[in-house]
Amino acid sequence: MVTLTGNSLTMDQMKRILFENVYVQASDDSLHAVKKCREKVEQIVDNGEVVYGITTGFGKFSDVFIAKENVSALQYNLIASHACGVGEPFPELVSRAMLVLRANTMLKGHSGVRLIVVEKLLSLINAHIHPVIPSQGSLGASGDLAPLSHLALVLLGEGEVFYKGNRMETKEALAKEGILPITLEAKEGLALINGTQAMTAMGILTYIEGEELAYQSELISSITFEALQGITDVFDERIHFARGFKEQIQVAERYRNILSTSQLTTKQGEIRVQDAYTLRCIPQVHGASWQVLNYVKEKLEIEMNAATDNPLLFGDDVFSGGNFHGQPIAFAMDFFKLGIAELANISERRIERLVNPQLNDLPAFLSPEPGLQSGAMIMQYVAAALVSENKTLAHPASVDSIPSSANQEDHVSMGTIGARHAYQILQNARRVLAIECICAMQGVEYKGVEKMSVITRRFMEDARKTVPSITKDRVFSTDIEKLTSYLKENFVSDRFVGQKQI
Question: Where exactly is the 5-imidazolinone (Ala-Gly) cross-link placed along the chain (predicted)?
């Protein structure tokens, strides 16, 4: 069970909610804060005060007063009109994360919703009823309006959901779980859709998978290191302490641990004086990507506990501000793209060193019969295509902005686009690393599996259950996709890397 307070949600807790399906509940203090805040909203409505988003229209219509008897209709119209997202739906785990984040921000007690709104969100999470939310259509300021409107529709019994592996009408899933839809009242529609929960949820899933892929890249490149008989002097801690970057130091330590029992690695001068950068500079390059990951995690953990709707209520004060603007997450996800793209870039160059006979002493393209059989030749082509595609996706979304709402909303973050592209880069990078893994395992078989380190050999034995050795040419696309799925579905780092941080 994870208890939401509005202030203390962590990445580890989100990982449990998403991948271990733990239940969620609200703390008593946060529920009390929600109730107190709601009393102020009802006072504003009863008194006929003019307050943006409570008794007025939205955006450019902020100067239109809404009478008390029309407040409920205003909220429904807001949700219905704004639910115009397009494209393929977000992954179901992103939808689940959006529900959690939306409930958590309301539990801060600044949004002005009734308790029943939070309770319904928690009910959806615990019943595993996840809104079908189109992934395109958000500008990332005024919040993720279109995606969150599709989420809000489910509370009203409308739209579609994912439920027990099926996509169905919301009312059917709610009926199966005995959950009744609600009618929104003053401020609640706006509180549901004015925020950064789509980009943040997409960012959370991307980060969790990206962190795991970074650890997997260390295992996979360690096998490459053995296949190419790399020089382990480059991991000496004195080199990395001399520079001082924490993440670089940690990466080098993990490689020393992974390769400590290997009989395939070499020392300086035994075979060659120094290796190419793709081996020699692994701690520096991978360490820099870990710096990116740590930055992104910090920003996401702040945002997942943030009040990002508008207006916000603080006791008797109501402020119209701009916490819905996604710029911090837009920058973070654009930064993430660079860090993960570089893990793929350096991996593709290691693949080249594994398959190019001019750069190693292995059979050309790792072929069992060079010339008659092509071996891994075209796998390197695929890796090259994927990293090239990543370079276009890595263009920062956050440098773009298009005015909206008749220039009332004249600068936007495009953070949700950045988060979506980050996830695409991650998928491409995983396939590149899967290709490196296939090639590295084949290469090390020529050098002697019995000489591998204890850790890399255990990992290889596990991976070989998914992709067998190359004894003759076959449709390698199947192997790449199978190993990619293995890397995505199995968080292997705990089993094979052990202690991750210093």
Answer: 141-143
